[in-house]
Amino acid sequence: MAETLSATLRPDNPRHPVPPRDPASPRGLNAMGVQAHHPELTAAFNQLIRHALYFSTITPRQRELLVLRVAYLRDSAYEWAQHVYQAGIAGLAPEEVTRVRVGPTAPEWAPLDAALLAAADELVADARIGEETYDALSTELDTQQLMDVVFTVGAYEVFAMALRTFDVELDDDLKPYA
């Protein structure tokens, strides 16, 4: 299990830089403990998460907007707390993180940010990005980036389902981000 997680968290040749090791960063041990019950499934799922974290064609900031919105929509306190921390690393300001809860209609969002949040809303609600949102996204994102939007939302929605279904409690080191 440690080897599987190590390969996921410290990949070779990532498109996006791997954050430096921070001994104070949340470790997510409770989530890893649940995953340890099914190493083969965890290894397979972590390939998708690895892509979303380090090899995606969307930026880390864009990824964190999507993940936070999924966490909020799915009421996944664990995923929210873990990604509030990650969002800070990706450059989101605290007020932007708070605004994710309001969603795409908050007037302060740049058009692409609002479209990303709308895409998350639509994918979670309807399993499809609506035409208007798709058009807005496609003015700035290419086909690979659009695919990464869909698969990022999907991966983190699955993880939110698992975290909630298995009642994964917040680790003490995540509580400040809840």
Describe the biggest sheet? none
Q: Give the class from helix and strand content and strand pairing.
A: mainly alpha
Number of strands: 0
Q: Tell me, briefly, the overall form.
A: globular
Helix content: 55-70%
Cα-based radius of gyration, to the nearest Å: 16 Å
Distance between the termini: 27 Å
Q: Unreliable runs, pLDDT <50, ≥5 residues?
A: none
Explain this structure to me?
The protein contains nine helices and no strands. Helices cover 63% and strands 0% of the residues. The model has no long low-confidence stretch (mean pLDDT 91). Helix 4 crosses helix 7 (111-126) and helix 7 packs antiparallel against helix 8 (131-138). The protein has helices at residues 2-9, 29-35, 39-55, 60-73, 77-89, 94-100, 111-126, 131-138, 143-165. It has 178 residues and is an all-alpha fold.
Using brief descriptors, characterize the structure shown.
178 residues; mainly alpha; 0% strand
Q: In brief, what are we looking at here?
A:
The protein has 178 residues and is an all-alpha fold. Helix content is 63%, strand content 0%.
Would you spell out the secondary-structure blueprint of this structure?
Blueprint lengths: L1 H8 L19 H7 L3 H17 L4 H14 L3 H13 L4 H7 L10 H16 L4 H8 L4 H23 L13
Helix pairs in contact: 1-3, 3-9, 4-5, 4-7, 4-9, 7-8, 7-9
